[in-house]
Amino acid sequence: MKKERFLYSFLPPYLPMAGERGGGTIFRGDSGMGMYRIGDKIVYPMHGAGVIEAIEEREYLGQKQDYYILKMPVGDLRVMIPTHNVVGIGIRDIIAPVEIEKVLKILRDQSVNVTANWSKRYRENMIKIKSGSIYEVADVVRTLMLREKGKGLSTGERKMLNSARQILISELVLAKGTDQTEIEVEIDNCVRS
To answer: Using CA atoms, how far apart are residues 10 and 48, in angstroms rounded to an integer?
Structure first.
């Protein structure tokens, strides 16, 4: 019997940057459309995109709460997200298929305008990843892949690249309706072209 891995989400509230609302799609909590439902495809900042496969009541620290059980398309991971805090942690709908080309355009851009200071560059990239915006994550992936090709990456930046790639891949897999390998090849082709 295969053991399921769960990631419990108890992150502090997410505060989007001014004017930033993720991949161009508004948060459902802000739209007045209500809760997400089973089968909805959503993005969880810092973890990636997934499909809600269940809504369950669980007890944690003596309190019963409802959780979205999010199945990630990359890896065998399920994430439990408290339903009452979706806006606070930055949950949003995945991008529409028509927005994929904008992501690919960011990946094709060969210009790199980043600071030489490793710690400042790392901090700036982490802010972009935490924003939950697929466009910001695509920019981090592009920048780090180009830097890796040119000067190489530190261990910390290599881990960041791997994490950002997984976040990007998970959303593109769901938005495009294809498999992980095809998206990985497409990302590599865009950046290395």
So the answer is: 16
CB 172 within 8 A of CB 184: no
| 66 phi-psi bin (left φ>0, alpha ψ -120 to 50, beta other) | beta
3-state helix, strand, coil in the chain (%, to 5): 45, 20, 35
Domain 97-192, second-level architecture: Up-down Bundle (1.20)
Indicate if the pLDDT at residue 169 is higher than 50: yes
Cα–Cα distance, 76 to 129 (Å, whole number): 22
76-103 core/surface letters (b: 16 or more CB in 10 A; e: else): ebbbbbbbebbeebbbbbbbeeebbeeb
Which fold, 5-93?
Thrombin, subunit H (2.40.10)
User: What token pair was written down for 29?
Assistant: 């909590």
**What pLDDT digit, counting tens, does each position of 106-122 carry?**
999 988 777 778 889 89
The boundaries of every CATH 1.20.58.1290 domain in the chain are 97-192
Any idea what DSSP says for residue 24? S
